[in-house]
Write a structure and sequence with these properties.
homodimer; four-stranded mixed beta sheet; about 200 residues; alpha/beta; globular
């Protein structure tokens, strides 16, 4: 049986500390259909970072030019630097039948969902705000005021969870990953991106 | 964590011989959340059939009265008898947080999809028309002209496969069942019917 496929754009989001990064890395590793997208940024490369692999490092002028041409699926300014997900390479992957996954903060996720209504959007939830606090404090790298700010943001982001198609509670990471994988496998069977041809013979 | 749920209406359809009945029975058996719907019919009960269990056996007058009140999610006339899926018991199950599954021919499925846009629709495909013919002939109960009629219908039904949200090719029944189960488990995580509450503690 001949089966044609179209790629899926998977938007993985959730509050800082919910664990979307871990789920993202694991899915990228285990699912050969999934590809990542390299972001653009105007910040300087850190030691060891490779242009075109970790980020595309560009000037602010070049970034603004791309922005004017609607070249980003989403973008944000953080601490005076711009970051953005380029539109063209994602579209090209999808058209080639490959899937692309974005690990992205909720503000960016809402932009992508508006721009790409066929995307599959998954919001990762912490089991409780107390647990989220423990995870953020457990990183040991965050100042107390940053933890409090992230917790305030998390409340606002969780309040918007219904904007996403799917919700995954990350209580235990193995179970959360299995739920995410189930969503991805089901979405591969959608009639909008899965085209089996029933042969005569 | 408190999790509220809304039921799912699962519409399982496909051409005669694709194997939807087997998948339906197995999912009903394995998934405790899934409930079946008892249809109404105007035909007489066969020996051993129980009213309210196999069908609700009603007069044509009673059936037409329900039809006038929009009491069916779908209905059809077959060999001079009416058959219909009653609306009210399905809605009540869904509101109680239970899921309901319908094993239904493509004409009925399209009616349900129009009437209940939130339903999950899955179309079961045979791997080939040759295999479909083998299955229909293998039943041994069908006259050759019935087999030919079912095959003609199947071609028309397969041509409308994109009306369904999901496609499952039933090449091997265990694999087809696993795909169906994946779809059902993913759909349980939809933000429209799955409401986890992130607690403070």
């Amino acid at each position: 049986m001949l089966i044609n496929k179209k790629g899926m754009l998977l938007v993985l989001s959730g509050p800082s500390g919910a664990g979307k990064g871990t789920l993202y890395s694991r899915l990228l590793q285990e699912d050969g259909d999934m590809h990542f997208s390299v972001s653009y940024t105007t910040r300087a490369p850190r030691p060891g970072e490779v242009d075109g692999k970790d980020y595309y490092f560009v000037t602010e002028e070049a970034f603004r030019e791309m922005l004017d041409k609607d070249g980003f699926l989403e973008h944000a300014e953080v601490h005076g630097h711009f970051y953005g997900t380029p539109r063209e390479p994602v579209i090209k992957q999808l058209e080639a039948g490959n899937s692309v996954m974005l690990d992205i903060d909720p503000q960016g996720a809402l932009q992508v969902m508006a721009s790409m209504p066929d995307c599959v959007s998954v919001f990762i939830l912490p089991p409780s705000f107390a647990e989220l606090r423990r995870r953020l404090e457990g990183r040991g790298t965050e100042k107390q005021e940053d933890v409090e700010r992230r917790l305030r943001n998390a409340r606002g982001e969780v309040a918007l969870k219904d904007k996403y198609q799917y919700l995954v509670v990350n209580d235990k990471v193995d179970e959360a990953f299995s739920r995410l994988k189930t969503i991805v496998e089901a979405e591969k069977l959608r009639s909008t991106r899965y085209f089996p041809v029933v042969d005569e013979e």
